[in-house]
Amino acid sequence: MAVRKSSMFTACVALMAICAVLVIASGVWFGVAQEAECAQRARWPVAILGGCILLATLAGFAGAYSDHGRARYLLRFYFIAIPVLIVILVVFLVFAAVVTGGSGAYPLIGRAYDEYRLDGFSMWLRGYVSGDPGRWEEIRSCLAGSDTCKKLARQASFVTADEFYKSSLTPLQSGCCKPPSECGFRYVGPTVWTNPTSAPDHDCGLWSNNPGQLCYECESCRAGLLATLRSQWHKVNIALVVATVSLIFLYVAGFIAYKKARK
């Protein structure tokens, strides 16, 4: 029986294409997700990997339905490329699980929000925001021009310090739009704080009420960015795990169907 007549094989390849689209969609969402949009370049490899998987499955589909003599090369490419790409996807998932293990968050008494420290994250993530000054300068400029802190400053619901402390801030707002709590600054507004005479923490000296500066140079801001990326990464990993398990099952089922069709 010809391969192109094997409905089992073609069905498996078609379902694998759907899984590839799921990987692409996850990667696109990760790449354009809000809050950490200033670090988009770190988030597009998932979509690229999904595109490669889709191309490989389309090659297998075309090879199965083509009567041309070169169709066997398409099938050969499919059977070689898909396992390699699945291995890369598994390696990516393991890598993501390792580097996003620590949350970097620590709760505060009397605060509804958490604050974040760099030493709570993996060394790889810390290196991403601290290893290249030029990269962080680009991210910092993007954050200063975004609505992350501007939106917080416009909220009229924060009249008193207690109301602000009971609010649910995002990791970026907590790390970049206000000074760390250990600085002991006095609250004036969401992005306006009175500086004490002495500040025990390095970030305290970097804080400025200037809307273009705030705490964008602080380690807490870097930690807030990593916390946002980590949260988004975990959401993407759920879809990628489902896609990976499905790809492995469908590839094995399709390979068995291909062998039977060859006989």
Automatic annotation (TrEMBL):
Location relative to the cell: Membrane
Keywords, in A-Z order: Membrane, Transmembrane, Transmembrane helix
Segments crossing the lipid bilayer: 12-32, 44-65, 77-99, 238-258
GO-annotated cellular components: membrane
GO biological process: one example: auxin-activated signaling pathway
Topology versus the membrane: Multi-pass membrane protein
Top-rank taxon, per record: Eukaryota
Protein name, UniProt field: Tetraspanin-2
PANTHER family (UniProt xref): TETRASPANIN-8-RELATED (PTHR32191)
Family: Belongs to the tetraspanin (TM4SF) family.
Signal peptide region: none
